[in-house]
Design a protein that fits this description.
There is one protein chain. By secondary structure, the chain is mostly helical. It has one domain: Phosphate transport system protein phou homolog 2, domain 2 (Methane Monooxygenase Hydroxylase, Chain G, domain 1, Up-down Bundle), CATH 1.20.58. Helices cover 86% and strands 0% of the residues. It contains seven helices and no strands. It starts with a helix and ends with a helix.
Length: 232
C-alpha cells in the first residue's frame, strides 16, 4: 500500500530534476554559441556576430535564475539526499559557471566591436589557437559533467594549465608588438584582454570539471595542495 505514493513522489522529483537538467543544457548550448559568435566577431571582423553574442546573454541570465529557482524548490520540497542531492547542487553550480563563461563572451564581443572600428591587425590571429583550446576545454568539461566522465574531468584540469601558458605566450607577443607599433596600443590592449577572457573560460571550465567529479563520485578535487597539507 505504501509503495504507490513513494513511486509517485519519486516520479515527481525525477520530472523536476529532468526539467532542471534541461534548462542547464539549454544554457550550455546558448553559452557555447555565444562564445563561438564572440570569437568569430573578432576573427572575421563581424560586429553583427558580436551583437548576437551579447543578445544571447540575456536569455542565459534568465535561465540561470530559473535553474536557481527550480533547484531551491527541489531542495525544499523533496529534501534529497546522497546522489540526488549532489545532482541538484551540481546543476546549480554548473549554471553559475555557464553564466560566467557567457559573460566572457560578452566581454569579448564588446572588445570586438571596438577593434572592428579600426584597420585590421594581422596580430589578431595570435588569438585563434587560444580560442580553439578554450572552446575545446569548455566543451570537454560539459561532456565530462553530462556523461559523468571522471577521467575526462581530470584531463580538463590539466589542459587548463596549458591554456594559462598559451595565454602568457600571447601576452608576451602582444606586449612586444605594442613597442613596435605604439599607434595601435589601444587595439593591442583589446587583444590582450580578449586573451585574458579566453583564459578565464578555461578557469570556469576547470570548475565545471571539478563539479563533474563531485556529481559523479562525491569527490572534491578542488585545492589538492591544501588537502595534502591537511592530511600531512
Amino acid at each position: 500500500m505504501e509503495t504507490t505514493p513513494t513511486r509517485h513522489i519519486l516520479g515527481t522529483f525525477e520530472n523536476a530534476l529532468n526539467t532542471l537538467r534541461s534548462d542547464v543544457l539549454m544554457m550550455a548550448s546558448l553559452t557555447e554559441r555565444s562564445l563561438h559568435n564572440a570569437m568569430q566577431a573578432v576573427l572575421q571582423r563581424d560586429s553583427d556576430l558580436a551583437n548576437l553574442a551579447i543578445a544571447d546573454d540575456e536569455e542565459i541570465d534568465l535561465l540561470e535564475k530559473q535553474v536557481d529557482q527550480t533547484g531551491i524548490e527541489l531542495l525544499l520540497r523533496f529534501q534529497p539526499v546522497a546522489s540526488d542531492l549532489r545532482q541538484v547542487i551540481s546543476a546549480m553550480k554548473l549554471s553559475g559557471n555557464l553564466e560566467r563563461v557567457a559573460d566572457q563572451g560578452v566581454n569579448i564581443s564588446k572588445r570586438a566591436r571596438k577593434l572592428n572600428l579600426n584597420p585590421e591587425l594581422d596580430d589578431v590571429h595570435y588569438l585563434e589557437p587560444l580560442f580553439i583550446e578554450a572552446l575545446g576545454v569548455f566543451k570537454d568539461s560539459l561532456k565530462a559533467f553530462v556523461e559523468g566522465d571522471i577521467e575526462l574531468a581530470h584531463a580538463v584540469k590539466v589542459r587548463d594549465k596549458k591554456l594559462d601558458e598559451a595565454n602568457a605566450d600571447v601576452a608576451q607577443r602582444l606586449t612586444a608588438r605594442m613597442a613596435e607599433d605604439p599607434d595601435r596600443i589601444a587595439d593591442f590592449l583589446n587583444l590582450l584582454l580578449i586573451a585574458r577572457h579566453l583564459e578565464r573560460v578555461g578557469d570556469h571550465s576547470k570548475n565545471i570539471a571539478e563539479d563533474a567529479v563531485y556529481a559523479a563520485a562525491a569527490e572534491d578535487i578542488r585545492h589538492p595542495r591544501a588537502q595534502s597539507a591537511a592530511r600531512g
